[in-house]
Design goal:
The structure holds 2 protein chains of 2 kinds.
Chain A (H helix, E strand, L loop, with lengths): L4 H25 L3 H21 L3 H22 L4 H22 L7 H6 L7 H30 L1 H6 L4 H23 L4 H14 L4 H26 L3 H27 L1
Helix pairs in contact in A: 1-6, 1-8, 1-9, 1-10, 2-3, 2-4, 2-8, 2-9, 3-4, 3-8, 6-8, 9-10, 9-11, 10-11
Chain B lengths: L6 E12 L2 E12 L3 E5 L6 H9 L6 E6 L4 E4 L13 H5 L7 H10 L15 H14 L4 E5 L7 H17 L3 E5 L3 H7 L2 E5 L3 E5 L1 H6 L1 H14 L9 E3 L5 E3 L1
Parallel strand pairs in B: 3-7, 3-8, 5-6, 6-7
Antiparallel strand pairs in B: 1-2, 1-4, 8-9, 10-11
The chains are: A mainly alpha, B alpha/beta.
Chain lengths: ~270, ~250
């Protein structure tokens, strides 16, 4: 069964959606969408380095994205530049450096489109193992840091005052972001990973009144997006990554109808 | 009995500077079990800063702070909660610690907001939210409570009831309370120790000592001095309009 590329893609997508659901909620709550983008852009450099030194792609992307996150934190401390300028600087320069390095690697033929937008055919059994084991680890760590991370998302000073060590939780969360990008890059591509993080969570926000519900709806939204997206990409012969994101946009629009309904009820 | 064992938090000549400006400096105080220490002083005198130093929120401080407990409840003066978060009162109550449902209900009943338990936090009024903040801080049964203007926005009768509650909590839980308040009546009646701040410690002592102090009179004006009798008192410095200190 795993021989079938479509089944592999489906399993990979399901594994990723279960992890991006809760992580995406934090991305929305903590306003980190551009941060996610920046890490994803830096992943290109990770991929090219993986090819140059024959490393595992997920591992190489994880290392480079973590490094970029560390550099960002240092730049935030040392310079007076606003956060969005620093994010833009790192996102575009790491993307550019990645593309320049590709230029030097004339001995390898790169599927740039596959890297940018994901490639359904590229998912191997090995990738599946990385996605499911890596994903399980990410969820486990997220569960462990949930309390301090969530408390400091609501209010940093309360968390700090009551002894939850929010700085450590934030640093660990940054590593988890790098990790999810590393394991999902082949599937959705580096331009669309942030969409996978944000759109299901945004959809979930529209229909939830508690954080737990939002996490659950976000996971369900991600799963539906993967299933609808992949089946329609098979049906209409469209690329998989964009189809998944388009499906999640469709779900988001549906969730807006629910808001409209509630507003009407209130009136 | 060794009285030092009762100390929950102690500030030694502590101060905090932000962008080359001292927010507060040279503060020494200690909060002991079962005692209420109140910080008073005009706006910008460093009351909240002192509370945050005591809580360990500010890291690069002058002087030192010794904290002997991890069971802390905090009611901040300002709290900005981002409404991208769907958060009910019930979720907020277990924010920093998993508390049993009984304890949540008890705390919400004590502050008079049990009926709001399943309401969205964003839909509360200022006074209701303040009562929820206080309920959250006491539901943990903390050893140290830091209350930064805990009754702001609460209606007058509620205010008196909540101050009575705070006094009761200090007795029943035997916890130490660092209180910041503008209500001098309450301060003078319920407090064990008063610290009067104006960028530094102007005067401190028992409520009656402080009320007799001329610094206190200067800071709070005639109205405050009418509350309690005021004696002439030696006075080693005064303040310019900028809050600088001029030695006499």
């Amino acid at each position: 069964m795993l021989d079938d590329f479509f089944i592999r893609a489906l399993l990979a997508g399901i594994g990723i959606a279960i992890v991006t659901g809760p992580l995406g909620c934090f991305v929305v709550w903590r306003r980190l969408s551009y941060f996610g983008d920046t890490l994803a852009h830096s992943a290109l450099l990770g991929v090219t380095l993986a090819y140059s030194f024959e490393l595992n792609i997920a591992l190489s992307v994880f290392i480079i994205s973590s490094l970029v996150a560390l550099i960002l934190i240092q730049l935030q401390k040392k310079t007076n530049l606003p956060g969005d300028a620093l994010l833009g600087l790192l996102a575009h320069s790491s993307l550019a450096v990645g593309l320049v390095v590709i230029g030097f690697l004339t001995f390898i033929r790169f599927d740039i489109m596959g890297l940018l937008f994901g490639d359904i055919l590229a998912v191997t059994v090995n990738d599946l193992i990385i996605i499911w084991i890596g994903g399980a680890l990410i969820l486990l760590v997220l569960k462990l840091i949930w309390k301090p991370l969530f408390a400091s998302t609501v209010n940093y000073e309360l968390a700090e005052a009551e002894g939850l060590n929010p700085d450590r939780a934030k640093a660990i969360f940054t590593v988890l972001m790098a990790a999810i990008i590393a394991i999902s890059i082949k599937m959705v591509g580096l331009l669309l990973i942030t969409g996978m993080l944000i759109i299901p969570a945004a959809m979930a926000r529209n229909i939830s009144d508690s954080p737990q519900k939002m996490v659950i709806f976000s996971i369900i939204g991600g799963l539906l997006s993967v299933i609808i997206g992949l089946f329609s990409s098979l049906e209409f012969n469209t690329s998989s990554g964009p189809s998944i994101i388009a499906a999640s946009l469709f779900l988001f629009i549906l969730s807006l109808l629910k808001i409209k309904q509630t507003v009407q009820l209130k009136n | 009995m060794n009285s030092n064992k009762d100390i929950l938090v102690k500030l030694n000549n502590a101060g905090f500077r932000q962008r080359e400006k001292w927010l507060v400096e040279g503060v020494s105080l200690e909060v002991k079990k079962g005692k209420i220490v109140t910080l008073i002083g005009p706006n910008g005198s460093g009351k909240s800063t002192t509370a945050k130093i005591a809580l360990g929120i500010y890291k690069n401080i002058e002087g030192s702070v010794e904290k002997y407990t991890d069971k802390v409840g905090y009611v901040p003066q300002k709290i900005s909660i981002d409404w991208t978060l769907p958060l009910r009162v019930n979720d907020f109550m277990v924010l920093t610690e998993n508390i049993k449902d009984d304890a949540i209900n008890e705390a919400l009943s004590l502050t008079g907001v049990i009926h709001l338990k399943n309401k969205n936090l964003g839909s509360l009024s200022g006074g209701e939210f303040q009562r929820v903040l206080l309920a959250r801080a006491i539901s943990k049964k903390p050893e140290l409570l830091v209350l930064d203007e805990p009754v702001q926005g609460v209606d007058y009768t509620g205010e008196i009831a909540l101050y009575e509650l705070i006094k009761k909590i200090s007795d029943t839980l035997n916890c130490g309370i660092l209180l910041i308040s503008h209500d001098l009546h309450t301060v003078m009646s319920a407090t064990d120790h008063v610290v009067c701040l104006n960028g530094h410690v102007c005067c401190s002592g028992s409520p009656s000592d402080v009320a007799r102090n001329n610094e206190y009179k200067t800071l709070f004006g005639e109205q405050a001095s009418q509350i309690l009798s005021v004696y002439e008192h030696n006075h080693d410095h005064e303040h310019s309009h900028e809050g600088d200190i001029k030695k006499n």
